[in-house]
Amino acid sequence: MLPLYPDESDERLLARIPGKETVLKLADPVSIVRHEGVSQELKAEPLTRPVVDTTAAGDSFSAAYIAARIGPR
């Protein structure tokens, strides 16, 4: 996988994106979440089972993030 902006740091990319909450999903199993100006790096838990299907992995990531932010209803 090649980065979309190979010459920019993660911090510069986050600075270019407006909004109260931004998620920058990196190639490593890491994401950077910025919420109201505070950034935090979140690492994914290592997989303990084989990956069966990666179809729509980006959509699944987005859905899981939004569901976690909304919380139970």
Write structural notes for this entry:
The chain is globular, with a radius of gyration of 14 Å. It has helices at 10-16, 57-70, and strands at residues 21-25, 30-35, 38-43. It contains two helices and three strands, in the order H-E-E-E-H. The model has no long low-confidence stretch (mean pLDDT 85). With 73 residues, it is an alpha+beta fold.
The proportion of residues in beta strands is 15-25%
How do the SSEs run, as a string of H and E?
Answer: HEEEH
Q: What is the total tally of β strands?
A: 3
- Helix content, binned percent: 25-40%
Query: What structural class is derived from the secondary structure elements?
Result: alpha+beta
Shape: globular
User: Going across the major beta sheet, what is the strand order?
Assistant: 1-2-3
Defining traits:
73 residues, alpha+beta, three-stranded antiparallel beta sheet, 2 helices, 3 strands, 29% helix
List the helices and strands and how they pair.
Blueprint: H1 10-16, E1 21-25, E2 30-35, E3 38-43, H2 57-70
Antiparallel strand pairs: 1-2, 2-3
Outline of the structure:
The protein is α+β, with helices and mostly antiparallel strands and 73 residues long. It has 2 helices and 3 strands, in the order αβββα.
